[in-house]
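The records we work with from here on pair a chain with its fold. A complete example follows; check for yourself that the lines match position by position.
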Amino acid sequence: MFDIVSEDLVAVEEELYSIIQSPVDMVNDIGVHLVQAGGKRIRPALYLLCARGGVPNQAELLPMAVAIELIHMATLVHDDIIDNAATRRGRPTANARWGNHSSVLTGDYLFAKAFSAIILARKNMLKILTDVICNICEGEIIQLKEAFNANQTEADYRLRVAQKTADFIAASCELGAIAGGLDEKSVIRVREYGYALGMAFQITDDILDITASAEQLGKPVGNDLRQGIVTLPVIYALKNSPRSDELRNIIINQKMSDDEVKRGLEIIHQTEAVEYSYGQVHTYLQHARNSLPATLNSSVRESLFAVADFVGLRKY
């Protein structure tokens, strides 16, 4: 799905290794560890794809793609510290290897490097990125505040998902469209594609947390439930399960045992929660496809359709 920007993505990977270099050995070691952990690089790839929908300035293209991935990496580092996570993508997290203090400072370092990379970017593009970081932080704070709260609604959940995930993917697409010189209407529609794709992406993540294996996820199954994070499948089960009271008692227990996590997952699976959630994914993905402007060249449109297909089918 990223064939037409494959060379650009290789350049992004090389630049990531270059830009994280630091004279402080620990900062350098943590940075290399994070880049080597990999990931799907979806955000910079979407930025590059959307830029190819127009005629981008090559000199501007790479720095913004690198900045987008650095910001994503920084948020993951901070997420893992907040969650006290030991693994991500099957590898030890930075905080598990180097401790919270060094890891949080390295996350801050990555944020600084991101903005250093795009110091000459246009003001409107810088504002889009800073707004995204604010939204991510607000979403995380809301998630912490509402942890172990079994009274959350779907509207609460969607707002949190938008701030934590969808807005960033939307911004990546929007920035690409701006870099490609697309007209204002097309930029808006490309951003709408990214937003709907991001909503589908996070809902899929939340489904996989209760359906995939630990090997597929690279982290423990049921991790969200254990941390009191109330996701869409949980909200559905709370509303529709005959055992909703039992599930509610599990969710509000801040010291839930492994057996309680297992029981909570069983209750969720006894409902149509997974099917309902996948239905929401497919609705968002169809909206994403319908949002793409007809003015995009056919190869870019097909690639963006392929990304939507991947999100709908992914198992990791």
